[in-house]
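Quick board copy: two proteins, each given as sequence then tokens.
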Amino acid sequence: MQNSENAAFADLAALVPELVVSGFEKSLAFYTGTLGFRVLYGRPEERFAYLEREGAQIMIEQPADRAWITGALDAPFGRGINLQIACADATALRDRCQDAGVALYMDLEDAWYRRDAVLLGCRQFLVQDPDGYLLRFSQDIGTRPV
């Protein structure tokens, strides 16, 4: 049996990136409206939201008084990070982004990546969020031998 403290974290992933954003409302609209994330919980007074989409979880925050920032934040904030997010239908999500006027960083492609003696197939595309975080949405399309 779980105690009440552990139960409060039962629906949260073990690793969740927290993205610092420059405009909370704009980023929240992008993630929830364009990409289809839902708010698991938020603290609007702190410009913070914990988001989920098909099991993938991220946090967004526009820092105020307390921020864990280790260096200068220059645009684009997302330099050097590529978040792979599993999705059930990469084509539909790519189309949704295009319909919303979001520029694709990389259009839809099928790619095969070796894992030992098997190739893992994925249909994927990349977009950048309003602060430049690179989001790679990836749909499983099966396996095949190397």
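And the next:
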Amino acid sequence: MKNVANYISLSRIFLILGLPFFKPTDPAFVALYIAAGLTDMVDGYVARKTGTTSRLGEKLDSFADFIMIVVLLVILLPVLDLSIPLLILTAIIALVRIASMVVVYIRYRTFGGLHTYGNKLTGLMLFIFPVTLVFGRADWLLYLICVVALLSALEELIIHLTSKELEGNRKSLFF
């Protein structure tokens, strides 16, 4: 029972790694994607309810999130044919996220991300977006996601720059 949440996070990594074998509009892609998203929602809940939260669990969850973002970018960028402004915005978000990872490594000698409300909202929006592709493209939704993602990335970077220790479960810069 002690490692159930970690096994859920590990299963998300394997589900994510299956995504490149399908087109984003294939039912198998959607099924794997939804299963991966559900494991993302459940792992932290299970860890908190069973009293088994751990640094390893935080890192596994952050690593799985990172893998999901990279895999989705590789799969979706060629399909979406993004406009130049969206590509630039995506690159800026990536640079801020990379800067945040570098700061974490330099300051704390580890890998880690934060589970802020902004990051959770970004994750939820990113989770919903590929499912909406079945109904057609919505560039306005991409812009909204990018704005939320940029704000949450900047918030995380500021938290890392101003905190004395890595606080994986910090909810916000303001709380």
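Board note added afterward: The two ends are 32 Å apart (CA to CA).
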